[in-house]
Amino acid sequence: MILPDNETSVDLLNNEAIARTITELLRERPEQAITIGVHGDWGAGKSSILEMIEASLSPTPDVLCVKFNGWRFQGFEDAKIALIEGIVTELVAERSLATNAGEAVKNIFKRIDWLKVARRGGGLAFTALSGVPLPEHIDAVVGSVKKAIGEPGELLTRENYEAAIAGMSGLLKPDDSKRLTEEISEFRKAFRNLLNKAGVDQLVVLIDDLDRCLPEVAIETLEAVRLFVFTEHTAFVVAADEAMIEYSVRKHFPELPDTTGPRDYARNYLEKLIQVPFRIPSLGETETRIYVTLLLVGAELGEEDTEYQKLIKVARQHLAKPWLSTGLSAATVRDALGAKAASVSNALTLSDQIGQILASGTQGNPRQIKRFLNTLLLRNQTARARGFGDDVKLPVLAKLMLAERFMSRMFDQIASAAAKHPNGHCEDLAALEDPTEARSKPNKKRGDRPKVTDLDDVKTKPKDTEPNESAVLSEWRGSEAIRDWASMPPNLGAIDLRPYLFVAKDRKDYFGAVSVLGRLGAVVERLMGSKLSVQAYETELRQLAPAEAGQVFEELRARIVASDSFDTAPAGVNGMTVLVKAHDFLQTNLLDLLESLPSARCGTWVASGWDRVIRGSEFVARLDALLATWSEEGSTTLRVAALAAARTRKGGC
């Protein structure tokens, strides 16, 4: 059973209210040009809202919806021209205008050809700020195209370029050159005329996935939207994460000062283009529980099931006032599903169990919720296929995976202890789950629960250490997020966790580390500690033989890679730094690891802190080259950090 991650018109998030509001706004004054933004984080449901808008408008005969996905056009053609030509082409095709409005069609495509030539010419930039194309400018453009014929790598065929030259000579005559703004005005007139001929009362263009595009593609698409902004009977609905669009604007105008200038300019640019913004709210705990229940029930029964549709209607009533609901109760599900309720009882159990932490850990992001559930269900199916049977129970697996996903350091500590224990138990976890520990804590309101993040980011409060209590248990007891996780049913301290560690071997082989490392396992565990604690081990690490140091490094590397989370420094990086400082032959291994990391997902940590361990001209040159690569190809934050680090190194600081 896999939960599909495609956009859908089946609303499980109550986003239909947003879609309905946008549709009503569009139809309120169809003659008015308007641009609407649907904003939300990656995976928040923007594409599904566009699907709902299209489904709502499609039955209206005088409304035409056109969809454009900038990501799909990325790398094929100029995105600006692709959007303009795509809108006109679909309009002509949908309304059969090729024969019924021949002159209007020819006129609009002539205008598009002019814009293509202006873009292709290089010197004629397609922007409303362009000046007059002078005769000598046009001659230079034609000459540059003719010259390209002698360079086979720059063209497809001679015929294509001859056609381009002929078109350029005919469209850009020296004796009737116009300002580009005048040509754009003519395009708008031709487009309005085409809408009239087509009998379209309102053209609605739905633009999706702009936040997936490279900055240049995103800006070109938005510039094309600006061309239509003042065209009557035309509306745009742009779905994108506004933070990514703001970044694209700043990237497109690098000459702006690096203070508040770029950010303010980016926001002003977006606010002028997007007249009406809608932001999709993240899911809270109640909404997440309902969403998880609907996802799992729908996966069992199918989206078209009649009883399932009844359950969705009931769920929407709860979602209308989430502050009055705690989710879908078993009685509610039974009433909606009737005899089918028994087959989906696990959905209710799971949603009640994991809703609280899953909502907090994913920050209410629907796509991350789906990804977690898919991984959970796949692992459970794999365990059954491998013959684990009742040794792996779904509630236990779900609770462990919550720790693995949102508190990876704690999960590693639990797994290491269970792998070494003769019965697969984690005694520190059993102590943490002790009911007397829970009774000694004051009851908290649901709204007081902290946001769950990786354990490295969870602030711990100083606590008095109990006699003979391990440092790990003291650390856990000092974290409210971990205590909340431990209080969730079922208790895991007395369960044999070894079958679950085999299920999680796609992440890491905990048993391999125990058997191969032997006494070095304790060294690895110590090097997984905080930056302050690992610095005291450098002298001791120098006593390791080179082969032993290599083994420890490889185990640290495996754990870092297996964490699959690089926004902040993974546990083990600080220990690895001290280890390499103690054994400089491991510099090669360290650089190999850094070069293998997915730069698009790395935070700023990866670009700094290596000066005291990377020494020698050969290794320094590799680090400099890596910083240069990151400054061009890394994540947004990594590019800035890598560029700053490179400048600092060149300055000899």
Rg from alpha-carbon coordinates = 30 Å
Overall mean pLDDT: 76
Alpha carbon gap, first and last residue? 56 Å
Our count of helices gives: 33
pLDDT < 50 runs, ≥5 residues: 121-142, 144-158, 167-177, 437-465
Largest sheet: 5 strands, parallel
Helix content: 55-70%
Strand order of the largest sheet: 2-3-4-1-5
**DSSP strand count:** 5
Structural class given helices, strands, pairing?
mainly alpha
Please state the overall shape, judged from the principal axes of the Cα atoms.
flat
Count of the domains: 4
- In percent, how much strand structure appears in the residues? under 5%
Task: Write a structural description.
This protein has 33 helices and five strands. With 653 residues, it is mostly helical. It folds into four domains: 26-77 and 202-280, P-loop containing nucleotide triphosphate hydrolases (Rossmann fold, 3-Layer(aba) Sandwich); 96-188, no CATH class; 285-502, no CATH class; 518-650. Strands 2-3-4-1-5 form a five-stranded parallel β-sheet, with helices on both faces. Helix 4 runs antiparallel to helix 6, helix 6 (102-120) packs antiparallel against helix 9 and helix 17 (366-385) crosses helix 18.
Brief summary of the model shown:
It comes from Marinibacterium profundimaris. By secondary structure, the protein is mainly α. The protein is flat.
Which tags fit this structure?
five-stranded parallel sheet, KAP_P-loop, Rossmann fold, NTPase_KAP_P-loop, mainly alpha, NTPase KAP, 653 residues, 33 helices, 5 strands
